[in-house]
Amino acid sequence: DMGGAVVRTATVDPGGNFQFNDVPPGMYAVRGGNDVDGDGTIGESGELFNESMTMVDEEGDLEVDLDLERR
């Protein structure tokens, strides 16, 4: 959420897609990346990362494309 709390996590499928269910309406930062060193943190130096701010409305359907870039 906008306060920095993790609301949901997901792992991508083989096609690079992911889905979140039952997310309450509001503004969110969707962050994606890889965790090369397995420490549970994405987007560290040398890892892929990107984020997008998005608004979830009452209907809750939206699509976000993240083009990951190496940090």
Q: How would you sum up this structure in a few lines?
A:
The protein is an all-beta fold. The chain is 0% helix and 27% strand.
Give the key terms:
mainly beta; three-stranded antiparallel sheet; 71 residues
The residue ranges in which pLDDT falls below 50 over 5 or more consecutive positions are none
Oligomer: single chain
Largest sheet: number of strands, sense, barrel closure: 3 strands, antiparallel
Percent helix: under 10%
Ends: how far apart? Answer: 23 Å
- Give the amount of beta strand, in percent: 25-35%
Please trace the helix and strand order, writing H or E for each element.
Answer: EEE
Shape: globular
Number of helices: 0
Q: How many β-strands, per DSSP?
A: 3
Gyration radius, rounded: 13 Å
Q: Helix- and strand-based class?
A: mainly beta
Strand order of the largest sheet: 1-2-3
What is the overall pLDDT average? 89
Explain what this protein looks like in three dimensions.
This protein has 71 residues and is mostly beta strands. It has a three-stranded antiparallel sheet, with no helix packed on it.
Give me the secondary-structure topology:
Layout: E1 26-33, E2 48-56, E3 69-70
Antiparallel strand pairs: 1-2, 2-3
